[in-house]
């Protein structure tokens, strides 16, 4: 396991989903699982006419918004390369310097949500983990091992296989919550 920092660690598992993402009229959902000192909190929500990427960002914003204290170490687990890469590679710094324009000279998508999310960066010590894909219930050991190898490729070897399986369960639950958010938004 990664060396735990001196500050308490809050783990936030996030996921976003959008049914009909490619259409003008659609419904999206987000979900987050927060874990701290053996306790869990689950939150979800949804909205109409959105995108999958917006829901991925919204899940983390809502997770961070539910924290009541600052100065914690926060480990963020997401299957969104868009979210994790922006934060871990600090794409947002270049966007801000360039007036929220990408290197392709296009306006940054989801600027409103990125600005909300970036406001949290000074309040916590973050670490970001890309946990691609979900392990289906009843998956064979071989499938689990492949997902673990994929996780290690993205994040280094700081987690054992057993620890990864626990992380994967929370990741799967965030995905389920995002689906619940879609249902909630549909009414």
Q: What form results from the Cα inertia axes?
A: globular
| Mean pLDDT rating | 93
**Helical residue percent band:** 40-55%
Outline the biggest β-sheet.
5 strands, mixed
* Strands ordered across the widest β-sheet: 3-2-1-4-5
Q: What's the count of strands? A: 5
Quick structural summary:
Helices cover about 40% and strands about 25% of the residues.
Question: How would you describe what is shown here?
Answer:
Strands 3-2-1-4-5 form a 5-stranded mixed beta sheet. With 187 residues, it is of the alpha/beta class. It has a single domain, classed as 2-Layer Sandwich (Nucleotidyltransferase, domain 5). It has helices at 52-65, 81-88, 91-97, 111-118, 141-155, 161-186, and strands at 9-19, 27-36, 39-48, 73-78, 125-130. The chain contains 6 helices and 5 strands. Helix content is 42%, strand content 23%. The model has no long low-confidence stretch (mean pLDDT 93).
Features of this protein?
187 residues, Nucleotidyltransferase, domain 5, five-stranded mixed beta sheet, 6 helices, 5 strands
């Amino acid at each position: 396991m990664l060396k735990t920092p001196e500050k308490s660690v809050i783990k936030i598992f996030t996921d976003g989903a959008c049914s009909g993402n490619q259409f003008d009229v659609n419904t999206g959902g987000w979900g987050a699982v927060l874990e701290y000192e053996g306790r869990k909190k689950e939150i979800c929500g949804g909205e109409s006419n959105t995108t999958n990427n917006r829901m991925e960002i919204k899940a983390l914003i809502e997770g961070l918004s539910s924290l009541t204290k600052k100065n914690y170490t926060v480990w963020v687990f997401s299957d969104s390369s868009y979210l994790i890469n922006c934060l871990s590679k600090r794409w947002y710094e270049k966007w801000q310097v360039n007036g929220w324009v990408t290197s392709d000279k296009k306006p940054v998508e989801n600027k409103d949500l990125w600005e909300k999310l970036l406001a949290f960066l000074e309040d916590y010590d973050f670490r970001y983990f890309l946990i691609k894909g979900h392990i289906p219930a009843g998956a064979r050991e071989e499938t689990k091992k492949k997902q673990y190898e994929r996780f290690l490729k993205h994040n280094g070897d700081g987690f054992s296989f057993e620890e990864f399986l626990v992380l994967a369960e929370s990741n799967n639950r965030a995905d389920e919550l995002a689906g619940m958010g879609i249902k909630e938004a549909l009414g």
